[in-house]
Please model this.
Amino acid sequence: MRLNPIPFFKDRTTRPRAIIWSGVALIAFMVFWAAMMDGTSTYWFCTVPCHIVHDDNTLAYQESSHTNVSCMACHEPVNANPIEFTLIKIGVAPDAIDTIFKTFELPMNAHNEVALEMPTTQCTQCHNMPNRTFTPSDGLIIDHEIHAEKEIQCTLCHNRIAHPEGDITLVLEGDKKHDNWMSMDGCFRCHSQTPKDAETPPGACEACHPADYKLVPATHEKDPWYTLFGDSTGHTKAAKDESATVTESLKLHSEAESKTAGDGTEKPESEAAENEEPKWQEELIPSSGVNSCYTCHSTSYCTNCHGLEIPHSEAFKKDHSDQGFAKPEVCGRCHARSAEEAKGTGFCNACHHPTSTPPGDKWATEHPKTIKKTGAAACYDCHDERQCSYCHVNGTDAFRALGEEAWNY
Model:
Protein backbone atom coordinates (compact mmCIF):
# COMPACT_ATOMS: atom_id res chain seq x y z
CA MET A 1 0.00 0.00 0.00
CA ARG A 2 1.40 3.40 -1.02
CA LEU A 3 1.28 6.08 1.68
CA ASN A 4 0.57 9.69 0.76
CA PRO A 5 3.73 11.62 1.83
CA ILE A 6 1.60 14.76 2.46
CA PRO A 7 -1.55 13.65 4.31
CA PHE A 8 -2.92 17.19 4.03
CA PHE A 9 -3.73 16.54 0.39
CA LYS A 10 -6.61 14.10 0.19
CA ASP A 11 -6.10 13.63 -3.50
CA ARG A 12 -4.15 15.06 -6.39
CA THR A 13 -6.90 17.47 -7.33
CA THR A 14 -6.63 19.43 -4.03
CA ARG A 15 -2.84 19.78 -4.12
CA PRO A 16 -2.65 22.76 -6.58
CA ARG A 17 -5.34 24.61 -4.66
CA ALA A 18 -3.45 24.21 -1.36
CA ILE A 19 -0.22 25.41 -2.94
CA ILE A 20 -1.99 28.47 -4.35
CA TRP A 21 -3.60 29.36 -1.04
CA SER A 22 -0.33 28.82 0.80
CA GLY A 23 1.32 31.22 -1.65
CA VAL A 24 -1.48 33.75 -1.18
CA ALA A 25 -1.13 33.49 2.60
CA LEU A 26 2.64 33.95 2.36
CA ILE A 27 2.27 36.98 0.08
CA ALA A 28 -0.37 38.47 2.38
CA PHE A 29 1.92 37.97 5.37
CA MET A 30 4.84 39.59 3.53
CA VAL A 31 2.66 42.58 2.57
CA PHE A 32 1.43 42.87 6.17
CA TRP A 33 4.99 42.58 7.51
CA ALA A 34 6.31 45.20 5.07
CA ALA A 35 3.44 47.55 5.92
CA MET A 36 4.06 47.11 9.64
CA MET A 37 7.80 47.68 9.29
CA ASP A 38 7.26 50.76 7.16
CA GLY A 39 4.37 52.12 9.20
CA THR A 40 6.13 51.78 12.55
CA SER A 41 9.19 53.52 11.12
CA THR A 42 7.48 56.74 10.14
CA TYR A 43 7.71 60.08 11.93
CA TRP A 44 3.93 59.91 12.44
CA PHE A 45 4.11 56.61 14.31
CA CYS A 46 6.96 57.80 16.54
CA THR A 47 5.18 61.00 17.52
CA VAL A 48 1.39 60.45 17.35
CA PRO A 49 0.60 57.00 18.83
CA CYS A 50 3.51 57.47 21.25
CA HIS A 51 2.93 61.21 21.68
CA ILE A 52 2.50 60.91 25.45
CA VAL A 53 6.06 59.65 25.73
CA HIS A 54 7.64 61.76 23.02
CA ASP A 55 5.95 65.15 23.33
CA ASP A 56 9.12 66.86 24.56
CA ASN A 57 11.37 64.95 22.17
CA THR A 58 9.13 65.99 19.29
CA LEU A 59 9.17 69.66 20.30
CA ALA A 60 12.97 69.61 20.38
CA TYR A 61 13.20 67.67 17.11
CA GLN A 62 11.02 70.24 15.35
CA GLU A 63 13.53 72.94 16.32
CA SER A 64 16.49 71.10 14.82
CA SER A 65 18.17 71.03 11.42
CA HIS A 66 17.26 67.33 11.15
CA THR A 67 13.48 67.73 10.81
CA ASN A 68 13.56 66.14 7.35
CA VAL A 69 15.48 63.12 8.62
CA SER A 70 13.41 60.16 9.80
CA CYS A 71 13.64 59.00 13.39
CA MET A 72 14.77 55.55 12.25
CA ALA A 73 17.75 56.96 10.34
CA CYS A 74 19.39 57.88 13.63
CA HIS A 75 17.80 55.47 16.10
CA GLU A 76 18.09 52.17 14.23
CA PRO A 77 21.28 50.37 13.05
CA VAL A 78 22.62 51.46 9.69
CA ASN A 79 21.81 49.02 6.86
CA ALA A 80 20.12 46.56 9.20
CA ASN A 81 18.90 43.44 7.40
CA PRO A 82 15.17 42.53 7.53
CA ILE A 83 15.61 39.91 10.25
CA GLU A 84 17.65 42.22 12.47
CA PHE A 85 15.17 45.04 11.89
CA THR A 86 12.24 42.77 12.79
CA LEU A 87 13.92 41.57 15.99
CA ILE A 88 14.52 45.18 17.04
CA LYS A 89 10.84 45.96 16.55
CA ILE A 90 9.83 42.93 18.59
CA GLY A 91 12.29 43.92 21.31
CA VAL A 92 10.74 47.35 21.85
CA ALA A 93 7.12 46.16 21.54
CA PRO A 94 6.69 45.77 25.34
CA ASP A 95 7.23 49.54 25.63
CA ALA A 96 3.64 49.87 24.40
CA ILE A 97 2.46 48.70 27.83
CA ASP A 98 4.14 51.64 29.58
CA THR A 99 2.76 54.01 26.94
CA ILE A 100 -0.82 52.77 27.29
CA PHE A 101 -0.82 52.76 31.10
CA LYS A 102 1.39 55.89 31.38
CA THR A 103 3.95 54.14 33.58
CA PHE A 104 7.01 55.29 31.62
CA GLU A 105 9.80 56.94 33.58
CA LEU A 106 10.55 60.65 33.47
CA PRO A 107 12.88 62.32 32.84
CA MET A 108 13.51 60.31 29.70
CA ASN A 109 17.09 59.40 28.82
CA ALA A 110 18.06 61.07 32.09
CA HIS A 111 21.76 60.27 31.85
CA ASN A 112 22.12 60.74 28.08
CA GLU A 113 22.55 57.01 27.48
CA VAL A 114 21.42 57.36 23.85
CA ALA A 115 24.22 59.80 23.04
CA LEU A 116 26.81 57.69 24.86
CA GLU A 117 25.82 54.55 22.95
CA MET A 118 25.13 55.92 19.45
CA PRO A 119 27.90 54.86 17.02
CA THR A 120 29.56 57.25 14.59
CA THR A 121 28.10 55.36 11.60
CA GLN A 122 24.68 56.82 12.42
CA CYS A 123 26.08 60.22 11.43
CA THR A 124 28.54 59.28 8.71
CA GLN A 125 25.86 57.49 6.67
CA CYS A 126 24.84 61.04 5.65
CA HIS A 127 27.80 63.24 6.58
CA ASN A 128 30.94 62.63 4.51
CA MET A 129 33.61 63.57 7.04
CA PRO A 130 36.71 63.57 4.77
CA ASN A 131 35.02 66.00 2.36
CA ARG A 132 33.20 68.06 4.98
CA THR A 133 34.08 71.69 5.72
CA PHE A 134 33.83 72.31 9.44
CA THR A 135 32.54 75.66 10.68
CA PRO A 136 33.05 75.91 14.44
CA SER A 137 31.86 79.00 16.30
CA ASP A 138 34.08 82.09 16.28
CA GLY A 139 36.94 81.78 18.72
CA LEU A 140 37.11 77.99 18.64
CA ILE A 141 39.66 75.60 17.20
CA ILE A 142 38.24 72.08 16.89
CA ASP A 143 40.41 69.25 15.58
CA HIS A 144 37.89 66.65 14.42
CA GLU A 145 40.60 64.41 13.01
CA ILE A 146 42.28 63.79 16.34
CA HIS A 147 38.90 63.03 17.92
CA ALA A 148 38.20 60.49 15.17
CA GLU A 149 41.60 58.88 15.76
CA LYS A 150 40.71 58.49 19.44
CA GLU A 151 37.42 56.83 18.37
CA ILE A 152 35.31 59.55 19.96
CA GLN A 153 31.86 59.12 18.45
CA CYS A 154 30.08 62.21 17.11
CA THR A 155 27.33 62.27 19.72
CA LEU A 156 29.82 62.38 22.57
CA CYS A 157 30.05 66.09 21.73
CA HIS A 158 27.07 66.74 19.42
CA ASN A 159 24.44 65.20 21.70
CA ARG A 160 21.69 67.80 21.19
CA ILE A 161 21.99 68.39 17.43
CA ALA A 162 18.79 66.52 16.53
CA HIS A 163 16.95 67.53 19.72
CA PRO A 164 18.02 71.06 20.75
CA GLU A 165 16.25 72.07 23.94
CA GLY A 166 17.48 75.62 24.45
CA ASP A 167 14.37 77.44 23.23
CA ILE A 168 11.61 74.95 24.04
CA THR A 169 9.35 74.66 27.07
CA LEU A 170 8.94 71.08 28.30
CA VAL A 171 5.32 69.93 28.64
CA LEU A 172 5.67 66.55 30.37
CA GLU A 173 5.48 66.84 34.15
CA GLY A 174 8.63 65.38 35.68
CA ASP A 175 10.71 65.68 32.54
CA LYS A 176 13.80 67.88 32.45
CA LYS A 177 16.25 69.25 29.92
CA HIS A 178 19.50 67.43 29.25
CA ASP A 179 23.13 68.49 29.41
CA ASN A 180 24.34 70.14 26.23
CA TRP A 181 27.84 68.87 25.62
CA MET A 182 28.55 71.51 22.98
CA SER A 183 29.79 73.79 25.73
CA MET A 184 33.07 74.42 27.50
CA ASP A 185 31.88 72.37 30.46
CA GLY A 186 31.04 69.58 28.02
CA CYS A 187 34.57 69.63 26.62
CA PHE A 188 36.06 69.44 30.10
CA ARG A 189 34.42 66.09 30.76
CA CYS A 190 37.56 64.85 28.96
CA HIS A 191 39.90 67.85 28.80
CA SER A 192 41.57 69.18 31.95
CA GLN A 193 43.74 72.03 33.24
CA THR A 194 45.35 69.49 35.58
CA PRO A 195 45.92 66.35 33.47
CA LYS A 196 46.14 63.00 35.22
CA ASP A 197 48.58 61.59 32.68
CA ALA A 198 49.93 62.06 29.15
CA GLU A 199 46.70 60.67 27.68
CA THR A 200 44.51 63.40 29.20
CA PRO A 201 43.36 65.86 26.49
CA PRO A 202 44.88 69.33 27.02
CA GLY A 203 43.00 72.07 28.81
CA ALA A 204 45.28 74.98 28.02
CA CYS A 205 43.46 77.97 26.50
CA GLU A 206 45.58 78.00 23.32
CA ALA A 207 44.60 74.39 22.58
CA CYS A 208 41.06 75.41 21.63
CA HIS A 209 41.12 79.23 21.27
CA PRO A 210 43.07 81.46 18.82
CA ALA A 211 45.58 83.98 20.18
CA ASP A 212 43.26 86.98 19.67
CA TYR A 213 40.33 85.42 21.53
CA LYS A 214 39.13 87.32 24.60
CA LEU A 215 39.44 84.85 27.44
CA VAL A 216 37.95 86.86 30.33
CA PRO A 217 34.17 86.20 30.63
CA ALA A 218 31.85 89.19 30.70
CA THR A 219 30.70 88.31 34.23
CA HIS A 220 34.22 88.90 35.55
CA GLU A 221 34.21 92.48 34.31
CA LYS A 222 30.99 93.50 36.02
CA ASP A 223 30.80 94.91 39.54
CA PRO A 224 30.65 93.51 42.09
CA TRP A 225 32.86 90.62 40.88
CA TYR A 226 36.00 91.11 42.96
CA THR A 227 37.43 94.13 44.74
CA LEU A 228 40.24 93.80 47.26
CA PHE A 229 38.83 94.82 50.67
CA GLY A 230 35.57 95.69 48.90
CA ASP A 231 32.46 94.09 47.44
CA SER A 232 33.31 90.69 45.97
CA THR A 233 29.87 89.11 46.16
CA GLY A 234 29.85 88.38 42.42
CA HIS A 235 32.61 85.80 42.38
CA THR A 236 31.68 84.54 45.85
CA LYS A 237 28.11 83.73 44.84
CA ALA A 238 29.25 82.23 41.51
CA ALA A 239 31.74 79.96 43.28
CA LYS A 240 29.20 78.81 45.88
CA ASP A 241 26.48 78.15 43.30
CA GLU A 242 28.89 76.24 41.06
CA SER A 243 30.15 74.13 43.94
CA ALA A 244 26.58 73.24 44.99
CA THR A 245 25.58 72.32 41.41
CA VAL A 246 28.65 70.14 40.89
CA THR A 247 28.20 68.34 44.20
CA GLU A 248 24.56 67.50 43.46
CA SER A 249 25.30 66.42 39.89
CA LEU A 250 28.15 64.11 40.88
CA LYS A 251 26.02 62.61 43.65
CA LEU A 252 23.25 61.72 41.18
CA HIS A 253 25.82 60.44 38.67
CA SER A 254 27.43 58.21 41.28
CA GLU A 255 24.06 56.72 42.22
CA ALA A 256 23.22 56.05 38.56
CA GLU A 257 26.57 54.45 37.85
CA SER A 258 26.53 52.21 40.91
CA LYS A 259 26.94 48.61 39.72
CA THR A 260 24.50 47.11 42.17
CA ALA A 261 21.41 44.98 41.71
CA GLY A 262 17.98 46.01 42.96
CA ASP A 263 18.56 44.35 46.34
CA GLY A 264 21.79 46.26 46.92
CA THR A 265 24.13 43.36 46.17
CA GLU A 266 26.88 43.62 43.59
CA LYS A 267 26.12 42.49 40.08
CA PRO A 268 27.68 39.21 38.96
CA GLU A 269 31.09 39.68 37.34
CA SER A 270 29.79 38.17 34.09
CA GLU A 271 27.01 40.79 33.89
CA ALA A 272 29.39 43.64 34.75
CA ALA A 273 31.82 42.46 32.07
CA GLU A 274 29.06 42.24 29.50
CA ASN A 275 28.12 45.90 30.07
CA GLU A 276 31.70 47.09 30.42
CA GLU A 277 32.45 50.42 28.72
CA PRO A 278 35.80 51.77 27.50
CA LYS A 279 37.89 53.01 30.45
CA TRP A 280 37.72 56.64 29.36
CA GLN A 281 33.93 56.43 29.04
CA GLU A 282 33.57 54.91 32.50
CA GLU A 283 35.25 58.00 33.94
CA LEU A 284 33.10 60.40 31.95
CA ILE A 285 30.98 62.66 34.14
CA PRO A 286 28.00 64.87 33.21
CA SER A 287 28.87 68.38 32.04
CA SER A 288 26.87 69.67 35.01
CA GLY A 289 29.43 67.86 37.16
CA VAL A 290 32.26 69.97 35.72
CA ASN A 291 33.23 72.98 37.82
CA SER A 292 33.17 75.86 35.33
CA CYS A 293 35.80 77.76 37.30
CA TYR A 294 38.33 75.00 36.64
CA THR A 295 37.87 75.11 32.88
CA CYS A 296 40.02 78.27 32.94
CA HIS A 297 41.79 77.96 36.27
CA SER A 298 43.65 75.04 37.81
CA THR A 299 42.06 73.36 40.82
CA SER A 300 44.69 75.01 43.05
CA TYR A 301 43.87 78.52 41.79
CA CYS A 302 41.38 79.34 44.56
CA THR A 303 43.62 77.92 47.28
CA ASN A 304 46.64 79.84 46.02
CA CYS A 305 44.69 83.10 46.13
CA HIS A 306 42.82 82.57 49.40
CA GLY A 307 45.68 80.87 51.20
CA LEU A 308 43.53 77.93 52.32
CA GLU A 309 40.92 75.53 50.98
CA ILE A 310 37.75 77.20 49.70
CA PRO A 311 34.84 76.96 50.37
CA HIS A 312 35.16 76.57 54.14
CA SER A 313 33.95 73.25 55.48
CA GLU A 314 31.55 73.03 58.40
CA ALA A 315 34.41 71.69 60.53
CA PHE A 316 36.53 74.70 59.59
CA LYS A 317 33.79 77.11 60.65
CA LYS A 318 33.60 75.46 64.07
CA ASP A 319 37.27 74.99 64.94
CA HIS A 320 39.49 76.76 62.42
CA SER A 321 41.54 78.14 65.30
CA ASP A 322 42.35 74.60 66.46
CA GLN A 323 43.28 73.72 62.87
CA GLY A 324 45.94 76.39 62.85
CA PHE A 325 44.06 78.89 60.71
CA ALA A 326 43.77 81.74 63.21
CA LYS A 327 45.91 83.86 60.89
CA PRO A 328 44.64 87.40 60.43
CA GLU A 329 46.86 87.98 57.39
CA VAL A 330 45.07 85.14 55.59
CA CYS A 331 41.52 85.81 56.81
CA GLY A 332 41.89 89.53 56.10
CA ARG A 333 42.23 88.95 52.34
CA CYS A 334 38.49 88.32 52.18
CA HIS A 335 37.02 89.51 55.45
CA ALA A 336 38.78 92.85 56.02
CA ARG A 337 37.13 95.95 54.62
CA SER A 338 40.34 97.93 54.16
CA ALA A 339 44.09 97.45 54.02
CA GLU A 340 44.34 99.05 57.44
CA GLU A 341 41.76 96.69 58.95
CA ALA A 342 43.56 93.73 57.43
CA LYS A 343 46.61 94.51 59.60
CA GLY A 344 44.63 93.90 62.79
CA THR A 345 41.85 91.60 63.91
CA GLY A 346 38.90 93.97 63.86
CA PHE A 347 37.31 92.16 60.93
CA CYS A 348 36.95 89.06 63.11
CA ASN A 349 34.02 90.77 64.79
CA ALA A 350 31.78 90.12 61.80
CA CYS A 351 31.74 86.39 62.65
CA HIS A 352 32.76 86.26 66.30
CA HIS A 353 30.77 89.24 67.62
CA PRO A 354 27.76 89.44 65.28
CA THR A 355 25.50 91.27 67.75
CA SER A 356 27.82 94.28 68.16
CA THR A 357 31.35 95.50 67.57
CA PRO A 358 33.70 95.59 70.57
CA PRO A 359 35.25 97.41 72.27
CA GLY A 360 32.48 99.72 73.42
CA ASP A 361 29.68 100.22 75.90
CA LYS A 362 27.24 98.19 73.79
CA TRP A 363 29.43 95.11 73.85
CA ALA A 364 29.97 95.56 77.59
CA THR A 365 26.24 95.19 78.13
CA GLU A 366 25.53 92.71 75.33
CA HIS A 367 28.26 90.12 75.83
CA PRO A 368 26.85 88.66 79.09
CA LYS A 369 23.73 87.64 77.15
CA THR A 370 25.81 85.99 74.46
CA ILE A 371 28.04 84.16 76.96
CA LYS A 372 25.03 83.02 78.95
CA LYS A 373 23.55 81.57 75.80
CA THR A 374 26.63 79.99 74.21
CA GLY A 375 29.17 79.79 77.02
CA ALA A 376 32.63 81.35 77.20
CA ALA A 377 34.65 78.45 75.77
CA ALA A 378 34.61 79.87 72.24
CA CYS A 379 35.99 83.18 73.51
CA TYR A 380 39.21 81.53 74.59
CA ASP A 381 39.99 80.48 71.02
CA CYS A 382 41.16 84.05 70.50
CA HIS A 383 41.34 85.69 73.93
CA ASP A 384 43.23 85.00 77.12
CA GLU A 385 41.18 84.34 80.26
CA ARG A 386 42.89 87.34 81.89
CA GLN A 387 40.89 89.64 79.66
CA CYS A 388 37.73 88.62 81.50
CA SER A 389 39.44 89.05 84.86
CA TYR A 390 40.87 92.48 84.04
CA CYS A 391 37.48 93.94 83.23
CA HIS A 392 35.52 92.18 85.93
CA VAL A 393 38.08 93.07 88.63
CA ASN A 394 39.04 96.60 87.58
CA GLY A 395 35.72 97.69 86.11
CA THR A 396 34.67 98.73 82.65
CA ASP A 397 36.25 102.19 82.91
CA ALA A 398 39.70 100.67 83.30
CA PHE A 399 39.01 98.29 80.43
CA ARG A 400 37.72 101.12 78.23
CA ALA A 401 40.86 103.12 78.95
CA LEU A 402 42.95 100.42 77.30
CA GLY A 403 40.98 100.86 74.06
CA GLU A 404 42.00 98.52 71.25
CA GLU A 405 44.89 97.21 73.32
CA ALA A 406 42.37 95.52 75.61
CA TRP A 407 41.57 93.01 72.88
CA ASN A 408 45.22 92.12 72.47
CA TYR A 409 45.80 91.70 76.18
Confidence is low (pLDDT under 50) at residues 260-275. Residues 124 and 154 are 9 Å apart (CA to CA). The radius of gyration is 34 Å. DSSP finds 22 helices and no strands in the chain.
